[in-house]
Design goal:
The complex is a heterodimer of chains A (315) and B (88).
Chain A (H helix, E strand, L loop, with lengths): L3 E2 H8 L5 E3 L9 E2 L4 E2 L2 H4 L11 E4 L1 H9 L2 H12 L5 E4 L9 H7 L3 E5 L3 H16 L2 E5 L1 E5 L2 E6 L6 H10 L3 E4 L2 E7 L2 E6 L6 E4 L3 E4 H5 L8 E2 L2 E7 L14 E5 L2 E10 L5 H16 L4 H21 L1
Parallel strand pairs in A: 4-5, 5-6, 6-7, 10-17, 17-19
Antiparallel strand pairs in A: 1-3, 2-7, 8-12, 9-10, 9-11, 12-13, 13-16, 14-15, 18-19
Helix pairs in contact in A: 7-9
Chain B lengths: L1 E6 L8 H11 L5 E6 L2 E4 L3 H6 L7 E7 L3 H13 L6
Antiparallel strand pairs in B: 1-4, 2-3, 2-4
Classes of the chains: A alpha/beta (315), B alpha+beta (88).
Chain lengths: 315, 88
């Protein structure tokens, strides 16, 4: 199971969320295993049956003002009961003053206590996005991802078929490289987002040449850090037995994390300009998303022509 | 060289699906293949070519093939026409 340490969360989001640490450093070792946030209103008021204690607990103005209405002893007991659940982390929003006992008990019972200067709403939005991304189902696949006219095209195919060379050609034409050889794909809001598998710049191996640095060579404008994958193009050696699409009325799909991505099986042979075809695939995808399908339009015209001729013959 | 005259028998004529069938079948063979309609002659292995014929039911077409497996090619293509491409 994927887990996020409070330490990582704190270090990554310290600036964005205007966070500061109230409890001791030791509490940063706690692990978060749930992507959701919880406002423990009901738990604080005493209803603990369905307390989602594994989540990050957010204390906003409502919770804090409720706690302030409790007497000193009641507050201590209430907090202690709740803290007996192994809560990984509590965040107090708006930079509110933490009621008496909470900071002491957090240290005592090893619960990370953070304060954020953001409003509860802003914290929720920002933190939710981060947690969803962190806990999203991911996998790494052998592919190259390029942004062609704004369309995320993932090139797949056997080693040595020419994925990198094709990406290089596209980069030279002003398109953008996201990842070569290894793409990390993650589910995000019913779309598939591709990023480099390693955050280590845009290097590429070109057979016979070795490693080259795309960013240094072509400039920052030809690289990007992530892109939604909209089309997959599987490059394959020409095979007589393979049934290649001729008209384009039939669409093939491949599923990643339950999302279907259209896939095009593209035969490649020496001397064939693959990058031009990739550009055409990207443009055709844009046309389709605008509601125009050339294959459909053409065959509709053909049918109409045949129909008119048939009618004319009957007369 | 092998030639055969055939007639389009299916109701909808040579629309996209039958054209795809013809082209895919023809491409299994090594021989050159042409379809001739009146004064129009198209490459039977090219989808755009075959669709350009826009042949209706009852149209007479001449199938022409030349190469090592020309007879088999004509036989199979003619069979497609005879069986109406599995259509009405």
């Amino acid at each position: 199971m994927v887990e996020l340490s409070v330490k990582e969360l704190f270090e990554r989001k310290k600036k964005d969320l205007a966070l500061s640490l109230i409890s001791s450093k030791k509490t940063l070792n706690n692990m978060i295993s749930d992507s959701q946030l919880n406002r423990p209103g009901l738990a604080l008021s005493g209803y603990l049956d369905r307390f989602a204690y594994k989540r990050i607990q957010v204390l906003g103005e409502t919770e804090i003002s409720f706690l302030q209405t409790l007497g000193d002893d009641a507050l201590y007991e209430r907090i202690k009961t709740i803290f007996e659940y192994s809560i990984p982390c509590i965040i107090v929003t708006k930079g509110l003053t933490v009621p008496h006992h909470i900071d002491y008990l957090a240290n005592e019972m090893n619960i990370a206590l953070l304060s954020s200067r953001l409003t509860t709403e802003k914290l929720f939005n920002n933190l939710n996005r981060y947690l969803n991304e962190f806990f999203a189902p991911k996998k790494t696949i052998h592919a190259t991802l390029v942004d062609v006219f704004g369309v995320g095209v993932m090139l797949t195919g056997a080693s040595g078929i020419g994925k990198s060379e094709c990406a290089l050609d596209l980069v030279e034409r002003g398109h953008r490289l996201i990842a070569d050889d290894l793409v990390k794909i993650a589910l995000s809001n019913d779309t598939i987002i591709g990023t480099p598998a390693r955050d280590a710049g845009w290097f590429m191996e070109v057979r016979g040449v070795g490693i080259i640095d795309i960013e240094r060579m072509f400039g920052i404008q030809v690289v990007r850090q992530s892109k939604q994958i909209e089309v997959q193009v599987e490059l394959m050696p020409w095979r007589d037995s393979m049934d290649y699409e001729r008209i384009g009325l039939k669409n093939n799909y491949v599923g990643y994390h339950g999302v279907n991505i259209p896939v095009i099986y593209l035969p490649v042979s020496p001397g064939k300009n693959v990058s031009v075809i990739i550009e055409v695939i990207a443009m055709n995808h844009i046309l389709k998303s605008f509601g125009y399908d050339a294959a459909e339009a053409y065959t509709r015209r053909l049918q109409e022509e045949i129909r008119q001729k048939t009618l004319a013959m009957r007369k | 060289m092998t030639e055969k005259t055939t007639i389009v028998q299916n109701k909808l004529g040579l629309h996209a699906r039958p054209c795809t069938l013809i082209v895919k079948t023809a491409n299994k063979f090594r021989s050159d293949f042409k379809i001739i309609k009146d004064d129009m002659e198209v490459n039977g292995k090219s989808i755009m070519g075959v669709m350009t014929l826009a042949a209706t039911r009852g149209t007479e077409l001449k199938l022409w093939a030349h190469g090592p497996d020309e007879e088999y090619l004509i036989q199979e293509i003619d069979h497609l026409f005879e069986t109406r491409f599995d259509e009405e």
